[in-house]
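Design job #97: recover the sequence.
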């Protein structure tokens, strides 16, 4: 259920006086205080010459005067640059010490989003000698372990038993980007994987992650970091503060500013979303330390500044015709179409591909597909080989595809959160974009109320050319016939596969008997 549907939900005191990110101005890299020259050079290589307001605000509260003294909760529109906002200060802080251990963990709800965030870190971290790892289940766990854990070199005449070996294993990465399920796999099963040196925890798309338990990953991570309160932030050794001696020695071994009388730093948390929850019961799970709330403007739900919203009102049976007419009118511009379910995504994608000779390539992207298929489709969409992507809401969260000019809601989004995350696939990073919503007559009033929650009343009717729908009727009849054939073919194929599996299972049982 949406937070907006819950009445009389108390607002936490620290959320009542937020830092308004919109008051910050874009800042050229050369004017950014304390930025490591190596990171400045790395940013310029990926065509970043200045930081956006949310990035400047977070920098001020981390590297600037704020100095990571408080945990940060960031509510900022999609496409505003939240990933680099946390990646840059974390990389800068970790570069101060050359200690090789896992010190930063970023947790995201989906593999595709984790891959995208890992790429952002990987574009800047090597410049200061840091390595970034990925734990998402895209490859086998054995392959992931070989990337994450550094095994000791075999020395002639020396053999290690398993207990001794576990002590000698070390992290190969400084930063890990992970999905919750695969993170728990490594916590529970991977020898040498430890969070005892963790300094930064980022929970991206927080509201989505907190809605699901994901094998209790959050309490597990917090417990593992708390359980080392008696130790020090020194890999593979425990040193008392009196033995450490000089500040030079402290820096050498990575023991930094103390926290509440302890000689190791606290775990700093950063949580982010375009629609950050305000539910105290959910936020309390994070055990935040004097949190600081950064948000954009007075309204909780904020759409991209350069987004134009349009609606098309049509009968249910004519929605596919209005969609095709709209796509033709958009002239092959890169576009994402959102539906209400993975089943609807598959059916609509199949139907569109049954229309003869459309001047653009259409493909499906949904949870029904294997990860390898989705990754291949997304790569083709990024490169422009595919112009139109039909997607389920798995695509909405945080995914950044350059050049998406249009978003189309084939099915009206049920909540303002859904609309914001869908619309946020366009008009990113200061660019302009358009969001179209196909509506039936009885949905118009409800859609207007939905947009009012984002303080947005400017959604005009899109003027399709008068005859653009009418001329599609003959083609539509043919497309529907082709769709029936495709559906029957798929059903037959599924039945055939099921029969073969049952037959193979029966043979196996008879052999065992």
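Job complete. Output follows.
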């Amino acid at each position: 259920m949406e937070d907006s549907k819950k009445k009389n939900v108390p607002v936490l005191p620290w959320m009542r006086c937020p830092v308004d990110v919109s008051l910050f101005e874009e800042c050229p890299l050369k004017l950014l205080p304390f930025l490591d020259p190596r990171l400045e050079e790395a940013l310029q290589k990926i065509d970043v010459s200045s930081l956006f307001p949310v990035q400047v605000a977070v920098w001020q509260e981390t590297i600037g005067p704020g100095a990571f003294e408080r945990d940060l909760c960031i509510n900022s529109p999609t496409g505003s640059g939240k990933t680099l906002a946390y990646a840059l200060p974390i990389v800068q802080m970790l570069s101060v010490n050359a200690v090789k251990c896992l010190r930063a963990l970023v947790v995201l709800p989906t593999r595709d989003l984790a891959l995208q965030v890992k790429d952002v870190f990987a574009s800047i971290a090597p410049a200061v000698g840091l390595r970034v790892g990925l734990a998402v289940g895209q490859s086998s766990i054995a392959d992931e372990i070989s990337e994450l854990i550094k095994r000791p070199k075999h020395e002639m005449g020396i053999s290690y038993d398993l207990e001794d070996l576990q002590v000698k294993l070390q992290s190969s990465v400084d930063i890990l980007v992970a999905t919750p399920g695969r993170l728990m796999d490594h916590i529970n099963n991977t020898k040498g994987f430890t969070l005892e040196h963790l300094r930064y925890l980022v929970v991206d798309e927080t509201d989505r992650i907190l809605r699901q338990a994901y094998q209790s990953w959050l309490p597990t991570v917090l417990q593992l970091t708390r359980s080392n309160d008696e130790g020090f932030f020194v890999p593979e050794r425990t040193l008392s503060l009196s033995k450490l001696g000089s500040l030079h020695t402290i820096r050498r071994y990575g023991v930094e500013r103390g926290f509440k009388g302890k000689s190791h730093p606290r775990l700093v948390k950063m949580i982010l979303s375009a629609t950050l929850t305000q539910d105290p019961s959910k936020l309390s799970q994070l055990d935040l330390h004097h949190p600081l709330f950064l948000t954009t403007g007075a309204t909780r739900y904020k759409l991209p500044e350069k987004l134009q919203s349009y609606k098309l009102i049509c009968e249910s049976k004519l929605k596919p015709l209005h969609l095709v007419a709209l796509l033709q009118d958009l002239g092959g511009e890169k576009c994402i179409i959102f539906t209400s379910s993975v089943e609807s995504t598959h059916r609509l994608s199949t139907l569109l591909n049954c229309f003869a000779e459309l001047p653009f390539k259409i493909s499906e992207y949904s949870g029904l597909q294997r990860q390898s298929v989705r990754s291949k489709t997304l790569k083709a969409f990024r490169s422009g080989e595919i112009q139109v992507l039909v997607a389920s809401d798995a695509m909405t969260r945080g995914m950044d595809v350059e050049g998406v000019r249009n978003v189309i809601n084939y099915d009206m989004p049920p909540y303002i959160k859904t609309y914001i995350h869908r619309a946020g696939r366009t008009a990113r990073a200061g660019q302009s974009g358009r969001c179209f919503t196909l509506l039936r007559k009885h949905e118009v009033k409800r859609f207007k109320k939905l947009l009012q929650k984002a303080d947005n009343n400017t959604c005009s009717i899109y003027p399709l050319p008068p005859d653009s729908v009418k001329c599609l009727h003959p083609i539509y009849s043919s497309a529907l016939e082709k769709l029936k054939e495709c559906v029957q073919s798929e059903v037959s194929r599924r039945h055939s596969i099921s029969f073969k599996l049952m037959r193979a299972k029966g043979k196996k049982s008879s052999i065992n008997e």
